Amino acid sequence: MVNGRAKPSSPVVSGPTGRAPPGQTVSFTCESHGFSPRNIVLKWFKDGNQLPAFLTTMNPEGDSASYSVSSTARVVLAPGDIRSQVVCEVVHVTLQGSSPLRGTANLSETIRVPPTVEITHNPVPGNQVNVTCQVKKFYPQRLQLTWLENRNIFQTETASTLTENKDGNFNRMSSLLVNLPAHREYVVLTCQVEHDGQPAVTKHLMLEASVHPKDQSTDEPPDKAPTSLEAPTLLG
Description:
By secondary structure, the protein is mainly beta. It has 2 domains: 12-109, Immunoglobulins (Immunoglobulin-like, Sandwich); 116-228, Sandwich (Immunoglobulin-like). Helices cover 0% and strands 51% of the residues. Strands 12-11-15-16-17 form a 5-stranded antiparallel β-sheet, with no helix packed on it. A hairpin with a 5-residue loop joins strand 15 (186-195) and strand 16. The chain is rod-shaped.
């Protein structure tokens, strides 16, 4: 029989090595070492709410001068988890009069919230159109936005903004000022968004040619408004 007391080490929480989207279940592991006697209480919490432990093991099984504990908990990720924390709490007889030992993992290091992409347009004077691509509620911040005109990269971005929302995700807005096509029937503009190394998301807008004077009537404005066309994949 081995006697003696030893405090447990501060719990260390480890999570997935890569990011995962909302709705996916991810596992976290908590480890604490070097404590004696063997009896120890380990609890999991997410934002103050207790989580069930999926699996907890104690080593060694027999008598020893010190022991180690390892526990795994599972979390289903939600879109609002960017600022959430998973906490492993350890209580041991050697900690009487002291607060429990805690280890923490930030879900901001685990979650990936994919963006929603929307392309809109607004005619402006001078036979031009202001085209805007709005990329909403994405995390992490790493994102590349590319404009294409008839499959060719369009370089002249006129405005771009990046804003952080209260829940930690981001919005990106990019605008172009485009001349309506005069010599072709239409031009297809594409907003291509690549987020955190994931496959690109694309939205398309078809700008129709301006109406020639011979086709105009007194009730029709000189510039025909563009029409919107969405497609699930990048052209070509």
